[in-house]
Model the fold of this input.
Amino acid sequence: MDERSALLTEIAAEMRETAHWTGHATLSPRVATALAEVRREAFVAPGSERSAYENRPLPIGHGQTISQPFIVALMTELLDLEPGHTVLEIGTGSGYQAAVLAELARSVCSIEAIPQLASSAAAALAGQGCHNVELRTGDGGLGWPERAPFDAIIVTAAAPDIPPALLEQLRPGGRMVIPVGPRHGDQELLLVTKDATGTVTQRTVLPVAFVPLTGGGRD
Done:
């Protein structure tokens, strides 16, 4: 079994083990295929390629990390993406999560606060042929108003609460997955949904540990 297949097997086992929290015992075929297609080694920091298919986060510089593959898989699964969807990602990081989303949605709009990471992610995404991802540098907590509304929003850094701008930019019927909690305290992964009338509900999926969201729309 190669490293990528072994990682997918490990993710499948972790999905089963956490199903009593998440409500998802398996990945959908579309998400599993997307994870199999994206080359994670293309998005890790130079020198970390040999660790690319380990099921753990890896440092990518500037105090940031590329998320654990299981968490990428779970958050993607929770979005319930369809081929025609437009997705907003807050926290591009290395570009890996955006590459996975690009396999599943019509277009991905991704915001990164750190210019150096935005630049390297753009190069990595282009190198992997991800031409349906649009990047910008800025405060992710403010969202991307001119591209709104979005069918799905994914936030890859922890906010102390849900940024109001992101709720506003979520389309009725849409889903948001976001880690919420203090910088050095207990954080929870939330699934936020907005129904056809605009009513917002949320549920806790899993305890998590993420780097803090930069900006958060409060500056």
